[in-house]
Amino acid sequence: VQLVESGGGLVQAGGSLRLSCAASGRSFTSFAMGWHRQAPGKERAFVAALSWSGNRTYYADSVRGRFTVFGDSTKNNIYLQMNDLKPEDTGVYYCAADHLESGKWDYWGQGTQVTVSS
């Protein structure tokens, strides 16, 4: 099983980025797919997720209204559209998969760096 993130980079505050996650190695139709991030000196934290049914989305309060998570029906491709980026959004962003939204993230990607300059 592999989750591979891409799309990170350096952007000015107020700008936008779209992260992609390519999932392979098994079927992900019964998995919730999510994004987490780890800021420098902080623990990894939840950012956004797409439910295993694909019908619901979840967001951390800090990104609601600015970020959008979406994917294809198989959930083999998941995206995080990030708008109005702020310096506090800086960090390594990880894609993860949770079987049937159990609350335990079963698979993780290697991460992609996002840096927002002020």
How would you describe this protein?
- With 118 residues, the chain is mainly β.
- The protein contains no helices and 11 strands.
- Strands 2, 4, 5, 6, 9, 10 and 11 form a 7-stranded mixed sheet that branches.
Summary of the model, kept short:
With 118 residues, the protein is an all-beta fold. The chain is 0% helix and 53% strand.
Topology, please?
Blueprint: E1 2-6, E2 9-12, E3 17-24, E4 31-38, E5 44-50, E6 57-59, E7 67-71, E8 77-82, E9 91-99, E10 107-108, E11 112-117
Strand and helix order: EEEEEEEEEEE
How would you sum up the major sheet? 7 strands, mixed
Number of strands: 11
If you compute it from the alpha carbons, what radius of gyration comes out, rounded to the nearest whole angstrom? 13 Å
What descriptors fit this protein?
single chain; 118 residues; 7-stranded mixed beta sheet; 11 strands; 0% helix; globular
